[in-house]
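TEACHING EXERCISE
Course module: macromolecular assemblies
Task: Read the component lines below, then compare them to the predicted structure of the full complex.
Student: A.B.
Group: 4
Components provided:
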Amino acid sequence: MNATLNINRIWLLLQRYFIENKQRELSFWGIAIVVFMLAHQTEAVTIYLFISGLIFAGNTFKSFNYTPSGMHYLLIPATHTEKLITNILLSTFYYFAMFVITYTIGTFLGINIRNLLWGDSIPVEFDLFNTYWHNSGNISFWNMFYSFAVLQSIFMLGSVYFKRNAVFKTILSYFVLIFVLFVIQLFILKVGYGSFHIDNHDINLQFMSFNDYFPGFETAFKVLGYLSLPFFWLVTYFRLTEKEV
Amino acid sequence: MVNVQEVTFSYSKKARLISNMSLELEAGHIHGLLGKNGEGKSTLLKLISGLVFPHVGNIDTFGFKPQKRHPEMLQDIYFLPEELPQLTLSIQNFENVYAAFYPKFNSEQFNNYLKEFDITDKSQMLNKLSHGQKKKVFVAFGLATNTKLLLMDEPTNGLDIPSKGQFRRMVASAIDDTRCLLISTHQVHDLDSLIDSIIIMDKHEIVFNQDINNITNKLLFRVADRNTTDDTVLYSEDTLRGLFQVCKNPNGEDSKLDIELLFNAVLSNKNEIVKLF
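Instructor-supplied answer key:
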């Protein structure tokens, strides 16, 4: 028996999820189609993706909210790695894929129904993909997915870390972390330049402004951004292995 | 099968819940785990299955460290908790989903156990069942997994009177030389004629661990007149029917074990009783 990774057990865990959550999944994605029929502007859709996604990820390990359910989950004969991979597949890849599918269906139906009811002839366009796929700017579809995946990984960690109100506590922790980083930034500026002002200009509190003064900072920041995804997955794994109920 | 060696555990730094405990469980036995509330009985079951980790000492469950929660170990443990998980599944889907994780699961056995508990409709949703009905499904499933180790925490809580008898019969028929069952309970009468070994916890330690034959060889359980007293009496309870006594049994007389009486006797006269074994 493979002690770490067994595809059959991952398959069983996925099956378990879908059988246990069949009704909820059908309702959630049904509602999503209706939402996208009514609102398919890129900004609204993106906000919906990120907010609903973080709530989904924040409930990944919700079984730990209730001790008997947590016990039941931990005693399922599968490794921590398999349980984590299953949850990554669900909260990141499955969720994103379902989001794209329901967005496509919702937008298609929404525009066609509108054309039918009001006699309009609005062409069916998927703005979300237009903006992100075809622009040669910095934001690509891949970037959006990666940002989404990082956010999901943070909230998945929060869901295994906090016993109750995981989403709220993760958001709070996130802002505390940002504040601490902000203070560190000020401290570095104070130590490095003896002032909170640089060249008589007010400091720009965006991290990227550091690149002007510390060459390579932007690259390092990007690398850290890419590494953050496996980092949060790894921390979630260790948290899961040491989980006691 | 399970070897607990000098284990200490606590949920907080102030109070130890399990203190320097050692215990060995062998296949082919049904152990009754008794103790007052808060003595650490449920925690012991959790330690053996890897749900909590010992602070000091070692536990070996079929050669695995339970805290690793190795799937090969988990495939051979079924833990029935006192409170059951909330699952929005039909009984049929519960079987479909979870049986696959237990290689020795036997669907025919599961159906037979359910039938014995008078549960015939597997399309019923678990979350719509009463606590007792739900417990029957979990008991039936646990027995049908054919795992080497069954841990049951208050398994008869919530079961009606006929179901308690059915539970005893089912468990007795399901346990063979390859399986071991550890039952933690306060309902000592539900264990009558079922268990073959008694483990008693007091002050977060195991103070008594003997098999039934040994107990009835060394101790005599009797009902005596109020005037009867002799130096063999170790413990006595005054009831309407007379004095219920636990006595020394130097002549090896036969008597029927009274688990509740034994438990009270051990707690009130621990040193004297332990000395006899």
